[in-house]
Specification:
Order of helices and strands: HEHEEEEEEEEEHHHH
Strand content: 15-25%
Bound molecules: zinc ion
Strand order of the largest sheet: 2-3-4-5
Structural class: alpha+beta
Length: 206
Protein backbone atom coordinates (compact mmCIF):
# COMPACT_ATOMS: atom_id res chain seq x y z
CA UNK A 1 0.00 0.00 0.00
CA UNK A 2 0.99 3.61 -0.32
CA UNK A 3 4.13 4.57 -2.16
CA UNK A 4 2.24 6.95 -4.39
CA UNK A 5 5.21 9.26 -4.67
CA UNK A 6 5.28 12.72 -3.25
CA UNK A 7 4.75 16.33 -4.16
CA UNK A 8 4.35 17.33 -7.75
CA UNK A 9 1.82 19.33 -9.67
CA UNK A 10 -1.42 18.49 -11.38
CA UNK A 11 -2.70 16.54 -8.44
CA UNK A 12 -6.21 15.99 -9.73
CA UNK A 13 -4.89 14.26 -12.79
CA UNK A 14 -2.33 12.25 -10.92
CA UNK A 15 -4.80 11.18 -8.31
CA UNK A 16 -7.06 9.73 -10.91
CA UNK A 17 -4.18 7.80 -12.43
CA UNK A 18 -3.35 6.42 -9.03
CA UNK A 19 -6.79 5.08 -8.35
CA UNK A 20 -7.00 1.38 -8.58
CA UNK A 21 -8.82 0.66 -11.75
CA UNK A 22 -10.57 -2.37 -13.16
CA UNK A 23 -9.88 -3.33 -16.75
CA UNK A 24 -12.78 -4.92 -18.64
CA UNK A 25 -10.37 -6.69 -21.02
CA UNK A 26 -8.58 -8.29 -18.09
CA UNK A 27 -11.93 -9.27 -16.61
CA UNK A 28 -12.92 -10.93 -19.89
CA UNK A 29 -9.58 -12.77 -20.10
CA UNK A 30 -10.14 -13.96 -16.55
CA UNK A 31 -13.53 -15.39 -17.47
CA UNK A 32 -12.25 -16.99 -20.68
CA UNK A 33 -9.25 -18.43 -18.86
CA UNK A 34 -11.56 -20.36 -16.56
CA UNK A 35 -11.83 -23.88 -17.99
CA UNK A 36 -14.75 -24.66 -15.75
CA UNK A 37 -16.67 -21.46 -16.40
CA UNK A 38 -19.69 -23.22 -17.85
CA UNK A 39 -19.95 -25.59 -14.90
CA UNK A 40 -20.30 -22.65 -12.54
CA UNK A 41 -23.26 -20.49 -11.66
CA UNK A 42 -21.26 -17.48 -10.55
CA UNK A 43 -17.69 -16.30 -10.75
CA UNK A 44 -16.17 -13.83 -8.30
CA UNK A 45 -13.57 -11.46 -9.66
CA UNK A 46 -11.74 -9.82 -6.77
CA UNK A 47 -11.48 -6.03 -6.75
CA UNK A 48 -9.48 -3.76 -4.55
CA UNK A 49 -12.53 -3.31 -2.31
CA UNK A 50 -15.14 -5.88 -3.14
CA UNK A 51 -15.83 -8.20 -6.04
CA UNK A 52 -17.42 -8.37 -9.43
CA UNK A 53 -19.95 -11.15 -9.32
CA UNK A 54 -20.55 -12.63 -12.74
CA UNK A 55 -23.60 -14.80 -13.41
CA UNK A 56 -22.62 -17.36 -15.98
CA UNK A 57 -26.12 -18.27 -17.21
CA UNK A 58 -27.48 -14.77 -17.68
CA UNK A 59 -24.04 -13.35 -18.57
CA UNK A 60 -24.69 -10.39 -16.30
CA UNK A 61 -22.59 -8.87 -13.55
CA UNK A 62 -22.86 -7.03 -10.27
CA UNK A 63 -20.34 -5.11 -8.24
CA UNK A 64 -20.34 -5.95 -4.57
CA UNK A 65 -18.81 -3.35 -2.26
CA UNK A 66 -18.95 -2.62 1.43
CA UNK A 67 -21.04 0.49 1.93
CA UNK A 68 -19.75 3.08 4.35
CA UNK A 69 -23.21 4.39 5.02
CA UNK A 70 -24.97 1.17 5.88
CA UNK A 71 -21.93 -0.81 6.98
CA UNK A 72 -23.07 -3.72 4.85
CA UNK A 73 -22.57 -4.99 1.33
CA UNK A 74 -24.17 -3.06 -1.47
CA UNK A 75 -24.77 -4.51 -4.91
CA UNK A 76 -24.62 -2.35 -8.00
CA UNK A 77 -25.54 -3.50 -11.49
CA UNK A 78 -22.58 -3.64 -13.82
CA UNK A 79 -23.87 -3.74 -17.40
CA UNK A 80 -21.52 -5.43 -19.86
CA UNK A 81 -21.10 -5.01 -23.60
CA UNK A 82 -19.57 -7.58 -25.89
CA UNK A 83 -18.12 -6.16 -29.05
CA UNK A 84 -17.11 -8.46 -31.90
CA UNK A 85 -13.91 -7.89 -33.78
CA UNK A 86 -13.76 -7.58 -37.56
CA UNK A 87 -12.98 -11.29 -37.86
CA UNK A 88 -16.36 -12.00 -36.30
CA UNK A 89 -14.77 -14.31 -33.76
CA UNK A 90 -12.80 -12.27 -31.28
CA UNK A 91 -14.74 -10.53 -28.57
CA UNK A 92 -13.91 -7.53 -26.48
CA UNK A 93 -15.80 -6.87 -23.34
CA UNK A 94 -16.58 -3.41 -22.00
CA UNK A 95 -18.17 -2.18 -18.82
CA UNK A 96 -20.87 0.42 -18.59
CA UNK A 97 -20.34 2.93 -15.83
CA UNK A 98 -22.93 2.22 -13.10
CA UNK A 99 -23.46 5.98 -12.70
CA UNK A 100 -23.67 7.41 -16.21
CA UNK A 101 -23.99 4.33 -18.40
CA UNK A 102 -21.09 5.23 -20.69
CA UNK A 103 -19.33 2.29 -22.26
CA UNK A 104 -15.80 2.16 -20.88
CA UNK A 105 -12.85 -0.14 -20.57
CA UNK A 106 -11.80 1.08 -17.12
CA UNK A 107 -13.69 1.69 -13.93
CA UNK A 108 -11.93 3.52 -11.12
CA UNK A 109 -12.09 2.67 -7.48
CA UNK A 110 -13.49 5.85 -6.06
CA UNK A 111 -14.13 5.74 -2.34
CA UNK A 112 -15.79 2.34 -2.44
CA UNK A 113 -17.62 3.08 -5.66
CA UNK A 114 -16.57 1.96 -9.07
CA UNK A 115 -17.14 4.69 -11.61
CA UNK A 116 -15.84 5.76 -15.01
CA UNK A 117 -13.10 8.35 -15.27
CA UNK A 118 -15.58 11.09 -15.98
CA UNK A 119 -17.76 10.38 -12.97
CA UNK A 120 -14.75 9.95 -10.72
CA UNK A 121 -13.29 13.24 -11.90
CA UNK A 122 -16.61 15.02 -11.63
CA UNK A 123 -16.89 13.93 -8.07
CA UNK A 124 -13.33 14.77 -7.30
CA UNK A 125 -14.41 18.37 -7.69
CA UNK A 126 -16.94 17.93 -4.90
CA UNK A 127 -13.97 17.27 -2.64
CA UNK A 128 -12.94 20.86 -3.26
CA UNK A 129 -16.10 22.16 -1.62
CA UNK A 130 -15.59 24.05 1.59
CA UNK A 131 -17.16 21.44 3.87
CA UNK A 132 -14.81 18.83 2.52
CA UNK A 133 -11.83 21.15 2.83
CA UNK A 134 -12.66 21.65 6.45
CA UNK A 135 -12.78 17.94 7.20
CA UNK A 136 -9.47 17.42 5.44
CA UNK A 137 -7.90 20.27 7.38
CA UNK A 138 -9.06 18.77 10.67
CA UNK A 139 -7.60 15.43 9.66
CA UNK A 140 -4.31 17.05 8.71
CA UNK A 141 -4.15 18.74 12.11
CA UNK A 142 -4.65 15.43 13.90
CA UNK A 143 -1.91 13.88 11.77
CA UNK A 144 0.37 16.71 12.82
CA UNK A 145 -0.42 16.19 16.48
CA UNK A 146 0.56 12.58 15.98
CA UNK A 147 3.86 13.63 14.40
CA UNK A 148 2.82 12.10 11.13
CA UNK A 149 3.74 14.95 8.82
CA UNK A 150 5.24 12.56 6.27
CA UNK A 151 1.89 11.13 5.23
CA UNK A 152 2.36 13.26 2.12
CA UNK A 153 5.14 10.91 1.03
CA UNK A 154 2.66 8.10 0.65
CA UNK A 155 -0.67 9.77 0.02
CA UNK A 156 -1.95 12.67 -2.04
CA UNK A 157 -4.92 13.25 0.20
CA UNK A 158 -5.22 12.94 3.96
CA UNK A 159 -8.59 11.20 3.52
CA UNK A 160 -6.76 8.24 1.99
CA UNK A 161 -4.69 7.67 5.12
CA UNK A 162 -6.06 4.69 7.00
CA UNK A 163 -3.50 4.27 9.77
CA UNK A 164 -1.25 6.55 11.78
CA UNK A 165 1.48 5.06 13.97
CA UNK A 166 1.60 6.05 17.62
CA UNK A 167 4.47 8.39 18.55
CA UNK A 168 6.53 6.49 21.13
CA UNK A 169 6.31 9.25 23.74
CA UNK A 170 2.53 9.55 23.57
CA UNK A 171 0.27 7.79 26.02
CA UNK A 172 -2.04 5.18 24.53
CA UNK A 173 -5.17 6.85 25.87
CA UNK A 174 -4.33 10.09 24.11
CA UNK A 175 -3.36 8.29 20.93
CA UNK A 176 -6.60 6.32 20.90
CA UNK A 177 -8.62 9.47 21.44
CA UNK A 178 -6.97 11.24 18.50
CA UNK A 179 -7.33 8.19 16.28
CA UNK A 180 -10.99 7.90 17.17
CA UNK A 181 -11.45 11.50 16.09
CA UNK A 182 -9.51 10.82 12.92
CA UNK A 183 -11.58 7.79 12.01
CA UNK A 184 -14.83 9.66 12.64
CA UNK A 185 -13.71 12.43 10.29
CA UNK A 186 -12.67 9.89 7.68
CA UNK A 187 -16.08 8.28 7.89
CA UNK A 188 -17.82 11.62 7.55
CA UNK A 189 -15.67 12.41 4.53
CA UNK A 190 -16.50 9.14 2.81
CA UNK A 191 -20.17 9.59 3.61
CA UNK A 192 -20.14 13.01 1.94
CA UNK A 193 -18.61 11.53 -1.16
CA UNK A 194 -21.08 8.70 -1.18
CA UNK A 195 -23.95 11.19 -0.93
CA UNK A 196 -22.53 13.26 -3.77
CA UNK A 197 -22.25 10.18 -5.98
CA UNK A 198 -25.76 9.09 -5.13
CA UNK A 199 -27.04 12.56 -5.93
CA UNK A 200 -25.33 12.47 -9.31
CA UNK A 201 -26.77 9.02 -9.88
CA UNK A 202 -30.31 10.04 -8.97
CA UNK A 203 -30.09 13.11 -11.18
CA UNK A 204 -29.29 10.78 -14.07
CA UNK A 205 -32.25 8.53 -13.33
CA UNK A 206 -34.72 11.36 -13.28
ZN1 LIG B 1 -19.69 7.42 -15.39
Amino acid sequence: MGGYGSGGHNKTHRRLENFHRVDSFAFYDYLMGDKYLYCKTTVQYPLNRGDIIYHVQSRTALIKVLSVQEGEYRYVDLPLSRVHGIDGKSVRMYFHCPYCGRRVRYLYDYYKHYACRKCAKLNYSCQQKSGMDEIRLKMERIAERLDYQWWRNDFDCIADVYYIPKPHYMRWAKYEKLMQEFRALKKEYERNIENALMKAYKALCR
